[in-house]
Design goal:
By secondary structure, this protein is of the alpha/beta class. Helix content is 48%, strand content 14%.
């Protein structure tokens, strides 16, 4: 794990959040929103250092003190180092957002071709990483009646998605959310959000711009609300669960423009 120093000095009187996988996309949007709401933030990345530093600069401009740390959440020791660095910097931890995630885009027709290392890597980051992070953060979150938000996916709720290990890992995250909500109550709230299609480079990198445009068009034609989510759409829900929702725990919120409803309904006689 490498450590990039923050660009500002510690700010007092602010809450503290760790957001894994927060160099880009939903994680970056969440870090910035929390920064504007009075949180200091630990920004974690695995490969995207330049983007992580850009997110750090935006959060610092919003008034937050920041740390940028590289780490692989599928490695328990890295998770513990993220928490140790947070406590060393600020002496407290109020919120954990488990956002780090990976997949492979194999498609439904090729579900049986994946090798064991690929399956293990995806499950390790998405599911085991969430578990490791909660375990490392738990005593510190308990001390302040903090919270955990797991960024899952409709893949785990509907059994659809980019690959079998991704679907399985997000199903595990949803089950873990329910278990931990019971196990960590009343001191820690644990909830999850399950986005559908998000307009981030994650999908474009996986299937190309043309493939993404086709999927987006079908999604927007099918979903009742006729739109894909932006990173900010998802971040708004995450931040509400972190900074509000004081009596909510064990909830798995679907943020999919109504796709889970099975598509639009044609009303007889309606033009």
């Amino acid at each position: 794990m490498t450590h990039t120093a923050a660009v500002s000095t510690p700010a007092t009187g602010r809450k503290v959040a760790i957001i894994t996988g927060s160099a880009t996309g939903v994680g970056a949007a969440t870090a910035l929103m929390l920064a504007t709401r009075g949180y200091n933030v630990l920004i974690n990345y695995s490969r995207s250092e330049a983007e992580a530093l850009a997110t750090q600069a935006a959060c610092a401009q919003a008034g937050a003190d920041t740390l940028v740390l590289q780490g692989d959440v599928s490695v328990d020791a890295d998770c513990r180092k993220l928490v140790q660095a947070t406590l060393a910097r600020w002496g407290r931890l109020d919120a954990l957002v488990n956002n780090a995630g990976v997949t492979t885009f194999t498609g439904a027709a090729n579900w049986d071709v994946l090798d064991a290392p690929t399956f293990e890597h995806i499950f390790g980051v998405n599911a085991m990483g969430a578990f490791f992070m909660v375990r490392a953060c738990m005593p510190h979150l308990k001390a302040v009646h903090g919270c955990v938000v797991n960024v899952s996916s409709i893949a785990g709720a509907l059994g659809i998605g980019s690959s079998v290990p991704y679907i399985a890992s997000k199903g595990a995250v949803n089950a873990l959310t329910l278990y931990l909500a019971r196990a960590l109550a009343p001191e820690i709230r644990v909830n999850a959000v399950c986005p559908g299609l998000i307009t981030t480079r994650w999908f474009v990198d996986g299937i190309g711009q043309e493939g993404f445009d086709k999927i987006k068009a079908v999604y927007e034609q099918t979903a009742p609300l006729a739109r894909a989510s932006t990173p900010e759409d998802v971040a708004e829900a995450v931040v509400w669960l972190v900074d509000g929702a004081r009596t909510m725990t064990g909830e798995i919120i679907l943020l999919d423009s109504g796709m889970h409803l099975g598509g639009k309904v044609t009303v007889p006689g309606k033009v």
